[in-house]
């Protein structure tokens, strides 16, 4: 068993504070090229990525903040959670919220502090690189599965290169703005943005890593057709 690779998987978690240090384009190219080896039925490879840096990144952030300040309601191109979620998912989500805002020293009822953090979200937590992951407008569940394979490869590849990342579904609700800034066209569906950069290890928020469910909560073993799942 390759413990080094497994440690890359377990060490990956969302980072929300980055250094201004630039990320070499060659590093990003190597990660994206490797990530493209993700499984893809019939080798269709529906995923697309816009890599946004420099002034283009700054303009995208400005436009997103302006959209948020407008008060106009924006809707994402797709839903990422069932409604209602039910148990144990509602419980896990609530526990995450308490731990997450607690790690930032923000009271859950402090709307002003939460809005300030939302603005940092739209500024990509100062990450110098933003990746916008998008699919064809007619994407189906299986197409999203392919994108998930690819995106996980990207995030693990970044960890292997000493970088951190944070996928952002919340920013994707401004898909209309993102398409306009990047010239993607209405036929593209924005899946998420991904902040990428060198991690600020001094930021307390980057020490936050939510607990994961134990193996027994999400795994069933079947060794014989006549045996009960928990007796294998």
From TrEMBL:
One Pfam family in the UniProt entry: Nitroreductase
Alphabetical list of InterPro entries matching this protein: Nitroreductase (IPR029479), Nitroreductase-like (IPR000415)
Keyword Membrane: no
Gene3D superfamilies: NADH Oxidase
Domain Nitroreductase: 9-198
Entry keyword annotation includes Chaperone: no
Cofactor(s) essential for the protein: FMN
Keywords per UniProt: Flavoprotein, FMN, Oxidoreductase
Top-level taxon: Bacteria
PANTHER family in the record: NAD(P)H NITROREDUCTASE YDGI-RELATED (PTHR43673), NITROREDUCTASE (PTHR43673:SF2)
Annotated family: Belongs to the nitroreductase family.
Record-given protein name: Nitroreductase
